[in-house]
Design brief:
The chain is mainly α. The chain contains five helices and no strands. The chain is 58% helix and 0% strand. It is extended, with a radius of gyration of 20 Å.
């Protein structure tokens, strides 16, 4: 199954555009992404959860107890700060969410007005 994942990932990589897509995503790219995702998910389910030592669990809980959120404006240097922090061996940096405020605005507009 691992060979299948690697082969599918290579096919997906070859379909990825070199520049940002304008308009709709090609069907073959979406199909390849879905196939790769399903193969990875199936493998993860087959392998089950990764066993963690007591120390690993304690370290994870300690990290989660003190989160740091980096917020800023477009082109304000937040990506640089995130990348610098990601290079630190004692930090765990999650994927960035670049559309939080854009999505939040639409959600806020759906809420009933305050009386």
């Amino acid at each position: 199954m691992l060979a299948s994942i690697i082969q599918t990932e290579a096919q997906l990589h070859n379909l990825l555009p070199q520049q940002r897509l304008e308009g709709s995503v090609p069907t073959d790219l979406l199909d390849a992404a879905r196939e790769w995702s399903q193969l990875v998910w199936d493998m993860a389910e087959r392998l089950g959860p990764m066993p963690l030592s007591k120390k690993q669990v304690e370290d994870g809980l300690n990290l989660a107890a003190r989160p740091v959120f980096i917020c800023g404006v477009h082109r304000g240097g937040t990506t640089l700060v995130r990348n610098l922090l990601d290079g630190h061996p004692q930090l765990c940096v999650l994927p960035s969410e670049g559309t939080f405020y854009t999505n939040l605005e639409a959600k806020l507009k759906q809420l009933p007005a305050d009386n």
